[in-house]
Amino acid sequence: MNTGATPLLQIDTLVKRFGALSATDHASLQVHKGEVHALIGPNGAGKTTLIHQISGALQPDSGRLLLNGADITRLPMHARVKRGLARSYQITNVFLRLSVQDNLALALQAVAGSSMRFWRPVHTETQRMQAAADVAARVGLQAQLQRTAGALSHAEQRQLEVGLALASRPQLLVLDEPLAGMGPDESQRMVALLQSLRAETTLLLVEHDMDAVFQLADTISVLVAGRVIASGQPDAIRQSDDVKRAYLGDEALPEAHP
Ligand SMILES: Nc1ncnc2c1ncn2[C@@H]1O[C@H](COP(=O)(O)OP(=O)(O)OP(=O)(O)O)[C@@H](O)[C@H]1O
């Protein structure tokens, strides 16, 4: 979705080397406000490495990252979160012994006191617990409020992670394989949840499930050997010879639905 406006996120000729390997090799792409943008590519293409640089977990060797036109290349992770960038981590920021509500209340507390926008203004413990319940409902966990996170199914834990990332009301939510390890029904539920987030945040996701990617994404960027070889609407990506070549022997791209 290119509106001609300043991109929400601009990745400009980013380079990240591990020894002799360029895991990110002058990668450039733009994520526009309001879109669901999927980053795909064969195994080892450099998707995770790129996501780490966007979140601030890894520093690029050269190139720039701009959020709303401002250079964030050297900003630490927490400063990026303050500017509206959130990344959903797999399990690592879920407290397995705490309830769903307490996990979300802690995430809300973590953003309180900063200049971030809240799910709703949270001043008291009661308000914080209510706000946590609201976020739980947002990600489909309203019936699981009092369950400990460790007792949730894998898919429910992934929903909770999305909720934790939503606590800071991000402008850009970065998701690393949100459907990993899910069965078909669970995947469909997560796809529906991600669809429903469109109105409130821009999504950048790395995902191997091509059916889901082609169902969800407005824009797909294809990374091969650290380079973005194509970026565009799903139909253009599906028809691109470069992309077909890159996927030979790997995951097949789904056929267009009539
Ligand atoms: N910390 C590291 N040190 C050395 N090499 C690394 C490191 N992290 C990643 N790599 C290498 O960089 C390349 C890109 O890896 P990356 O994990 O980013 O790819 P990916 O597209 O996310 O792969 P997958 O789809 O299999 O998860 C790979 O060749 C990988 O072995």
UniProtKB/TrEMBL annotation:
Residues 9-250 form the ABC transporter domain. SMART domains: AAA. Keywords: ATP-binding, Cell membrane, Membrane, Nucleotide-binding, Transport. Transmembrane segments: none annotated. The keyword Membrane applies. Signal peptide: none annotated. InterPro entries: AAA+_ATPase (IPR003593), ABC_AA/LPS_Transport (IPR051120), ABC_transporter-like_ATP-bd (IPR003439), BCA_ABC_TP_C (IPR032823), P-loop_NTPase (IPR027417). One of its GO terms (molecular function) is ATP binding. PROSITE patterns: ABC_TRANSPORTER_2. Pfam families: ABC_tran, BCA_ABC_TP_C. This is ABC transporter ATP-binding protein.
